[in-house]
Design goal:
Oligomer: single chain
Structural class: alpha+beta
Shape: elongated
Helix content: 10-25%
Number of strands: 27
């Protein structure tokens, strides 16, 4: 009984620490305040005319040339943020938005020491930047921890420079994991530890003093902390920092496909046992096409790991080395196939345009189907809709807003290019696909729809 009580007391102590003082004392020497200065060019225009005594008079006197006679001279802008040292030789991690466009970067340590920093590299996609300072002495630093081991409810501690008040500590728990805000590579830890402006770029520690996240953003109606903060997970940051340190830039793997999540209706139409994987909605020129991947394939696994959804696949591919050959398992026409794909580099691909392939026209023939008025594409329609010569399919001329097609997001001007994972050029082609789906006992038909060049799949009911 005494032993059990002792174990229970130990577990409680680990889950609810009496104090964070020892942890704060241990890691604070490696946490830094960051001050940036930027020269802003003067305004060359004339000062606006505002009535004397107007509430705007003071505003324009402060930000425009007080004399109003000529351009305002350049002025210096200052911003504050946080960061942390990751190596004894002076590498420092912070947010990209903290140092973006800065002319000078100054780093202040807990000891009061101030050093000038240089930018090693930045990654706007994850809002991570790597800095470097030079020092005659080895600098205190902190290690990264494994963010994938963090659980909802675990204690965490944030440290930084909130609102320019200097070194400050706040504590809370992991409120949620795997949050996405706006980026393709987002993997945020949500925490209720107080994070405010100026905390950006600072570390989020686990109870072992390891960095499991980089404090990046808050959700707030008033600009202050309301207990909803976000830290980019160390699982993402470590990979970015390693690349910035080695190359001065990111070099992410590129598969060369457009993808979307698989819905229950799409899974039923495809014959999948359950909604899973990532549906390939387009395969432009690139590694995937070279390996034989096709539009309509569902990617089930990548490099030996199951694909749960599109976000997971994007992260997996991006974290894989450029030039590496990986095994990709796809679901096609009721069976799985294994493809060998040699990854390209995403940053290079994003700067290149992908031409469309040429193909023949179809004769116009309007038809009302599935709540839509459809007509085949012609050269005239392609010109009116600014479509490439290689685009073929059926144009949605009108759509009934009370139908399933409208509810699923189809709109006038959309182009249906495939039905049942086969190309359609005429209305008769779509009619054939509908009958084939019914004959096979399926309740839905998968359509590939393009809007302003962007493809996506939509599953529509074919039941009478």
């Amino acid at each position: 009984m005494v032993l059990l009580l002792g174990q229970a007391s130990l577990a409680l102590a680990r889950s609810a620490p009496e104090s964070f003082a020892d942890l704060a004392e241990k890691v604070s020497p490696a946490v830094v305040n960051i001050t940036t200065r930027t020269v802003i060019e003067g305004h060359a225009g004339t000062q606006p005319m505002v009535p004397e005594g107007s509430p705007f008079e003071e505003f324009f006197r402060e930000f425009m040339n007080p004399n109003g006679d000529g351009p305002m001279p350049p002025r210096r802008s200052q911003a504050l943020g946080s960061g942390f040292v990751i190596s004894a030789d002076g590498f420092i991690v912070t947010n990209n938005h903290v140092i973006e466009k800065a002319d000078e970067i100054e780093v202040e340590f807990f000891s009061g020491q101030v050093l000038e920093a240089e930018v090693v590299g930045t990654d706007p996609k994850t809002d991570i930047a790597l800095l470097k300072v030079e020092s005659d002495e080895r600098l205190p630093h902190v290690p990264f921890g494994d963010s994938d081991l963090m659980r909802v409810g675990d204690w965490v501690m944030a440290m930084g420079n909130p609102l320019g008040q200097g070194f400050s500590v706040s504590a809370g728990i992991v409120s949620a994991r795997g949050r996405a805000l706006s980026g393709a590579y987002d993997d945020y830890i949500q925490t209720d530890a107080a994070i405010n402006r100026g905390n950006s770029g600072g570390p989020l520690f686990n109870m072992e003093g390891e960095v499991v996240g980089v404090n990046t953003a808050i959700l707030s109606p008033n600009g202050g902390s309301i207990g909803i903060g976000f830290a980019m997970s160390s699982a993402v940051v470590i990979n970015v920092v390693d690349q910035l340190k080695e190359f001065g830039e990111t070099r992410r793997g590129w598969l060369g496909v457009r993808i979307q999540d698989v819905t229950a209706e799409m899974a039923e139409a495809l014959g999948l046992d359950q909604p899973r994987g990532a549906m390939v909605s387009d395969v432009p020129e690139g590694p995937a096409r070279d390996a034989g991947m096709e539009t309509g394939d569902v990617i089930l696994s990548f490099d030996g790991r199951e694909v749960e959804d599109t976000r997971g696949l994007v992260r997996q591919v991006g974290n894989t080395s450029v030039g590496r050959t990986v095994r990709v398992v796809v679901f096609r026409e009721g069976e799985t196939r294994s493809l060998s794909v040699t990854l390209g580099r995403r940053e290079t691909a994003e700067a290149e345009a992908v031409p469309a392939a040429a193909r023949p026209d179809a004769a116009p023939q309007d038809r009302r189907m599935m709540g839509m008025t459809l007509t085949p594409l012609t050269d005239e329609l392609r010109a009116q809709m600014d479509l490439g010569a290689g685009v073929e399919g059926l144009v949605v001329k009108e759509i009934d807003e009370t139908t399933e097609a409208y509810e699923k997001g189809l709109r006038a001007g959309d182009v249906i290019t495939e039905a049942g994972q086969r190309k359609v050029q005429r209305v008769a082609d779509l009619e054939d696909r509908i009958e084939e789906a019914r004959d096979a006992g399926r309740r839905s038909l998968l359509l590939l729809v393009r809007r302003q060049g962007e493809p996506r799949f939509v599953a529509l009911s074919v039941e009478d």
